[in-house]
Write a structure and sequence with these properties.
With 96 residues, the chain is of the alpha+beta class. It has 5 helices and 3 strands, in the order ααβααββα. The protein has a 3-stranded antiparallel β-sheet with strand order 1-3-2. The protein is globular and about 45 Å long.
Length: 96
């Protein structure tokens, strides 16, 4: 076994941990099914979340590179990063 495989296992474990919360799966589903970018406020409103709760979950998803966050003026624009899903969890997005 190579070191590269061990690093991928650690990354995979972080992704599993990030997806172990239902609200984070709901955020991923919302972003994937809408096939567009959304502001933090869109996510908050659509998923009936408080601002602090939304920020907490988005931070965790961003830390494991499952979402992209881009600042546009005073807004943060969120989009799904499909690459880690295809690499580590093939078929997961399609199952949503």
């Amino acid at each position: 076994m190579t070191i590269e495989l061990l690093q991928k296992d650690q990354e995979r474990a972080k992704i599993f941990k990030a997806l172990s919360e239902v609200k984070r799966i709901e955020i991923i589903r919302y972003l994937y099914q809408s096939k567009s970018v959304h502001s933090c406020g869109d996510i908050e409103t659509s998923l009936n979340m408080s601002k602090s709760n939304r920020s907490y979950h988005l931070k965790i998803l961003q830390e494991v590179n499952l979402i992209n966050v881009e600042r546009q003026g005073q807004f943060k624009i969120i989009s799904i990063n499909e690459q880690p899903f295809h690499e580590f969890l093939p078929g997961f997005l399609e199952s949503l």
